[in-house]
Every structure is written in structure tokens, then in C-alpha cells.
Amino acid sequence: MSAPSLRALLSVILVLVSGYASAQAVRVVAKVNGDAITDYALKERITFAIKSAGMQDSADLQQRLAPQILRQMIDERLQIQNAQALGVKATPEEIEQRVAEIERGAGLQRGQFKQYLQQIGVPFEIASQQIEAGLSWAKIVRRKVRPQVDVSDAEIDDGLARIRANAGKTESRVAEIFIPIDRVEQADEAKRSAERVVEQLRRGAAFPALAQQFSHGATAQQGGDLGWILPGSLDPALDAAIEKLPLRQASEPIRSPSGYHILLVLDRRQYAQSRPDDVKLNLVQMTLALPINASPNEVARATAEAQRAMAGVRNCEDLRNRERDIKGATSGTLTIQAGQLQANREMYEQIPKLAPGGTAGPFRVAEGLQIVALCSKEGASGLPTREVVGQQILLQKLEAASRRYMRDLRRVATVDIVKQP
Fold first, then answer.
1. Residues ≥6 apart with Cβ < 8 Å to 64
2. Taking the CB of residue 249, how many other CB atoms lie within 10 A of it?
3. Distance (Å, rounded) from C-alpha 283 to C-alpha 320?
4. 18 - beta bridge partners?
5. According to the CATH classification, is domain 276-378 in 1.10.10.60?
6. pLDDT, tens digit, for every residue of 320-376?
7. How far apart are the two ends of the chain, measured CA to CA in Å?
8. What pLDDT, in 10s, does the model give residues 86-116?
9. N or C: the chain end with fewer CB closer than 10 Å?
10. 90 CA to centre of own chain
11. Across-strand partners of 180?
């Protein structure tokens, strides 16, 4: 055989061997309505969960977490598929904006989240799939769940009556990690999953990080924070646990009709005392356009321009007038509860402390740089307004309806778990 023919034959053999090795290296561990989840993606996701939650990595831990992480990935695939069917799938631009928000919330510079992933050896695509699922699920809830949830005047009246009756009692701010049980045969595995989470908490892992990675509750991406809870507001087993829990000590898994809950009491206070997060802020915002991928020099120039614009502003009308002097600037009014600013740490820390007429910023937001002037405050003390009570009831009903919607997605899905040799 000639040398060229031999080389050609060897090339074919190498291609075949490479293809065979690749097939052996990457196996399908699950199919979700025909979409494959590979063992490579599962392993990388386990690494991401362990590192981001501050757990001590080991082969044993990876093996024990695998079923739980796989179930989370299956849910995320169902959410992405449903969002695509509804035409509300998250876009690459929205994913990039969410990454920027994560960086700002963690005090990171632009691009440092991806650098962190590189340092721990996790491809960005693994994290972006989780982000995409979270964004897609939020859109699904807005499109399909929210229109089905209403709060009546009678419910608000009942809520206000309960507030008056409970004034002076102790309420607790609670965080939750929720592991659902959709079918009876899932109960044992759900309990084992909850026990693994508690084990990691006992070893020092951060509750918010574990909630983001493992909780199936609607507040998972907020670290599981349920807000302030009154006695009698939850399932009796959960209420009893909250009453007995010391501050900042996670509970053992608690069974409810819907699944297992791990609870953490973040704080306690007398009910119906002044609620800083419920204070209504009437604001004027002025935004200076700046691309999400702006260079450090562009950000510095825009920041300097924003600071110059703030000089001499004494009230909301002054800030509205400044819009005419700055090319490309836009302004508008906004009424928001102080607690709703928590997604942007700088805004949450600065804006509620302003006196009427005061200004804060500039803050980096998705659209550019934002300057804020406080026009007035409402409800700074005493009982919450009807609007606040209605919003609290809405969130509780929306959480329950969202869980039912996700349960129905699982029930109609075709999910094949492939056993590995």
C-alpha cells in the first residue's frame, strides 16, 4: 500500500476512533420531551452548584447531589420548552442584562462573573442555561399564571382586620428552601434531597446560595426570602417550626402537603411596627443612555456627566428640567415600595434614606446611568396601606399558583431517566 493511501486509511481510523471515544465520554442521562441532558452538562452543573454554594467538593458529594441537580435541570428544561412554546423565551440580551445585575448585586466589575466561572472550570453556557430558565419562568408566570390570580376587596379587608388583631405580636422574616413532591413515589427521594441540603448547611454552606441552586420555590433566586410571616399564615407544621427556631439556625426538613421545606428565621419584630420596606417612594428618574457593553472610559465619561447634572438639583422638578440639557437623556416618574429596590443594592441602601427633594446616583442600570430624586414618602410608620396588604396577598396566591403550574408541566411531560452502566 502506498504512503498516501496509508495516511488516508489512518485518518479514517482516527476519525472513527475519535467519534467512538466522544460517544463514550458524553452520555445522555435524561431526555425531557425528547431534549437530551448529558452527563457532561450534569457534572459541570454539579461543580457550579458546589462551588457557588461554598460546599466542600468530593466525589461522594457529587454522587449524592447528582439526582437532585438532575431534577432541577429537568425542571429548567421544561420551563425553557414551555416559554418557547408560548413565545416568551429569554433572549441573549436579557441573559446578558441578568449577568450584569448579578455582578452589580455581588459588587463585581463588568465581566468578573465569567472570570469566576473560568476560575472554577465551569463553562459560561452552564450558568447561562440556569439564568435563561429563571428569566423564562418569570415570563411564563407573568403570561399564564398572573392573569388567573386576583385579590378581592374582601380579602384585603380580612387582611387588614388580621393585622389589627395581631398588632403587637411577633412576626418573623423567613427564608425557605422548598423541595416539591408531585407524586407519592417521589416522597422518599425528596426527603433525601432535603436532608442533603441540611447536611451542607450544617457544614457551613450559605443558605441563599443553596436556595438559588436547589429550591423549587418562587423566591429561590432571591435566596429563598419569603419576607415577614405572621403566626397562622403558613401550614401549621411550618408555623410551629418558625416559632421554635432560633435566629439564623436552619430547620430540619419539614413535611407539608406540597413537599419538604427547610426554613431559616432571619429576623423577628413586633407586628405592625414601622416597616421601612413598605414605605412608598414617589420618585423622578433621569436616565443617561449607555450601552451594556460600554468600555470603562465610556462609563467614566458618562458618570462625570451624570454627576454634573446632579449639581444644583434641589427637587424633582429640577431633575425633570435637566433632561432638556443633556442629549439622549430621558426622565419619568415612578412610585415604588422601598423593599422593591433590593435587586439593586446601591439603590436600596441610598434612596429610602433621602429626604424629600434629595438626589442619589448615578446608578448603573441596564439602560445606562440613572439619577433619582425623591419627591415624597408615604406610609413611613404604622399599619400598612390597602395597597401593601393587597400586594402581600397577591404574592402569596401567586406563589401557590406558580407551584401548581410547574407541577402540571411535570405531570404532562415525557421524561426518561437513563441509567448509567
1. 196
2. 10
3. 11
4. none
5. no
6. 888 878 887 888 888 888 888 888 889 999 998 888 889 998 998 888 889 999 988
7. 41
8. 999 999 999 999 998 888 877 788 889 999 9
9. C
10. 14
11. 259
Per-residue pLDDT tens for 134-143? 999 999 999 9
Task: Read off the C-alpha cell for 110.
Answer: 463588568
Length of the chain equals: 421
Rounded CA-CA distance 270/274 in Å is: 9
Report pLDDT for 76: 94
Q: CA–CA separation, 104 vs 110, rounded Å?
A: 8
In CATH terms, 30-147 corresponds, of 2.60.120.10, 2.60.40.420, 1.10.4030.10, 2.40.160.20, to: 1.10.4030.10
CA dist., res. 211 & res. 45, Å (int): 15
Give how far Cα 43 sits from Cα of 27, 189, 418, Å.
11, 20, 15
Do residues 97 and 366 make contact, with C-beta atoms less than 8 angstroms apart? yes
The residues spanned by each domain of the chain are: 30-147, 166-273+385-413, 276-378
Radius of gyration of the CA atoms of the chain, in A: 25
Distance between CA atoms of 60 and 53, rounded to whole angstroms? 17
Mean pLDDT of the chain: 85
Query: CB–CB of 81/33 below 8 Å?
Result: yes
